[in-house]
Amino acid sequence: MSETAKNNPEDLSGAARTDEAVVEDVAAEATDAEAEGGETANADPVAVLEAEVAELKDRLLRAAAEVENTRRRAKKDVEDASNYAVTKFARDLLDVGDNLRRALEAAGNDANADPAMKTLIDGVEMTEKSLLKAFEQNGIEKLEPLGEKLDPNQHQAVFEMPNPAYPDGHVAQVMQAGYVLKGRLLRPAMVGVTKNPAGQETAKSDEPGSNIDTSA
Fold first, then answer.
1. Predicted structure pTM score
2. What would the pLDDT profile of 183-206 be if each residue is shown by its tens digit?
3. 112 compared with 120, residue with greater pLDDT
4. Which of 70, 80, 155, 173 could anchor a disulfide with 192, C-beta 3.0 to 4.6 Å?
5. Using an 8 Å Cβ cutoff, are 194 and 162 in contact?
6. CA–CA dist 184, 84 (Å, integer)
7. How many alpha carbons fall within 13 Å on the CB side of residue 145?
8. What is the DSSP secondary structure assignment for residue 204, as one 8-state letter?
9. Contacting residues for 138 by C-beta, under 8 A, at least 6 apart
10. How confident is the model at residue 79 (pLDDT cuts 50, 70, 90)?
11. For residue 16, what pLDDT is reported?
12. β-strands 171-176, 189-194: how paired?
């Protein structure tokens, strides 16, 4: 014991109390640690395993769902590539069909044509039919929407015209036929749409019908 502690008993008492507080703090920390360790040790191992199994099952289901979504997207991409790979080529062929039709319209009535001209016209008609048949066999359908209600998804309105034969908003004239490839629009039909003067009656009622011509 130091000389100061001998001469001052109060200092000695304070030092003793300080040592006791340190011992109490250490004991309290040890008790808390034992309590925490006891809780971990006393946990039900079955419950712990069940929680781990549930977490792993959830992860597995999420991974399986992601794999399935990826598989479906890949399958759809392959189908689209197969169905619409010829889109550009098909659009190029549409111009050929248009030119054949224009040639036939320009020839007019071939009843009075000379044999050579009639043979030429017959050949053009057969070529057009063969082309349209090839279109149909490859999923390309022709749109001839005359008399149908205007469909902005398939028709391109070029002008309006009065025509009492059709209700307002219906196709009264087809300037250029449209085409679809397996349900996907290749080219819209260019049409004139009925716009009758107010009060003018129409001869046809507004009845829906098919606007796809497959009778190639």
1. 0.58
2. 899 999 999 999 988 756 555 544
3. 120
4. 173
5. yes
6. 9
7. 28
8. S
9. 86, 90
10. confident
11. 47
12. antiparallel
The encoded tokens of residue 83 equal 């169905």
> What separation, in Å, do the N-terminal and C-terminal C-alpha atoms of the chain show?
120
Rounded Cα gap, residues 190 and 186, in angstroms: 13
Single-letter amino acid code for the residue at 198:
A
Query: What is the DSSP secondary-structure string of 139-174?
Result: TEEEE--TTSBP-TTTEEEEEEE--TTS-TTBEEEE
Q: Are 174 and 211 in contact (CB under 8 A)?
A: no
172, 161 Cβ separation under 8 angstroms: yes
- Tokens 């149909």 — which residue? 136
Strand partners, 114: none
Element (H, E) at 187: strand 184-187
Distance CA 32, CA 118 (A): 109
Four-residue CA torsion sign, 94, 98, 103, 105: positive
Identity of the amino acid at 173:
Q
Give the residue-averaged pLDDT of 27-46: 61
For residue 31, report the phi and psi dihedrals to the nearest 5 degrees: -65, -45
Angle at alpha carbon of residue 200, lines to 198 and 202, rounded to 5°: 130
Going by C-alpha positions, the residue among 176, 137, 133 that lies closest to residue 154 is 176
Rounded distance, CA 121 to CA 171, Å? Answer: 29
Residue appearing with tokens 């070529």: 127
